[in-house]
Amino acid sequence: MILTTLLASLALLTSSNCSETKEDDNLLIRALQKQQIDARSVIWDDPQNNWKDYQAVLVFSTWDYHTDKFNFFLQTLSDIEKQGIPLFNPLSTIRWNASKVYLKKLAEKGVKVIDSIYLSSKDLKNLPNLLEKYGWEECVIKPSISASGDHTFRFNSSTVQKMQDHFKDYPYDLIVQPFMKEIMTEGEWSFIFFEKEFIHCVLKKPADGQFLVQSAHGGSVQPITPPNWMINEVKKILLATEQPYLHARVDVIKKGSALAVVEVEMIEPSLFLSYFPGSADKLAQKIKERLSASLTPLEPRAKGRASL
Fold first, then answer.
1. Which position among 25, 143, 168, 174 has the lowest Cβ density within 10 Å, counted as fewest Cβ atoms?
2. How confident is the model over 204-215, as pLDDT tens digits?
3. Beta carbons within 10 angstroms of residue 251's beta carbon
């Protein structure tokens, strides 16, 4: 039997509702295992979890964190960090990124973002007046804490009442933005970074007659090589967040010769690893470098033990 010294055991956090869309999870787990990291897919809210079993935790595909489990999600990550277990991304970054109010903070630093109005469900009665005030003929409304296009709607003055009814007594604040036609014509650019290094980019487009670009809503994904000026602009956006991160995704639209931020994702970003051979290995190497600097290798174990 061949024994190999493992560097660390790592929990790759996922959710119970993405069992059929875990290709990137499995790619990364295999890449980590090649780096002598015993990586396992772990449902983040499983009551049987014992975080002391792991020397590192990677938040990766926890795509239900924004539901009524949100506070429990943050508490779970806080419990992990309090035990001294390295958490990627750090809890401070995740807290900063959890509410889309961060877009307002970026705008205050001079970053171009899509114009946004922030309001509570109690303020929805003022929605018709706000549309008239800003001259927005068509808008998008979404929760400030959301993911995957959940509860995101396109509306105009004739359908305001539907939005008011849908979000009545909604627990989170809401964001209203002008509808950006560039989403329909050119699409949304997603830039992937590992530790400040640009890795790859995809162009996402909605299905015919739709406006959401996520694959769950029929959107398409196309690998694309962006021009250097776009990469440099996105680097500035990430720098403006002032947040430490292992992995991040920045979604932008092009408005003429400028970019406008749609979203900065530092919690559980889709990284599109399956579209770019070798990208999972790059992320695994980044994780290994971080862990090698702080951990003592585990005892040797039998090589080849499955942990998917």
1. 168
2. 988 776 767 676
3. 18
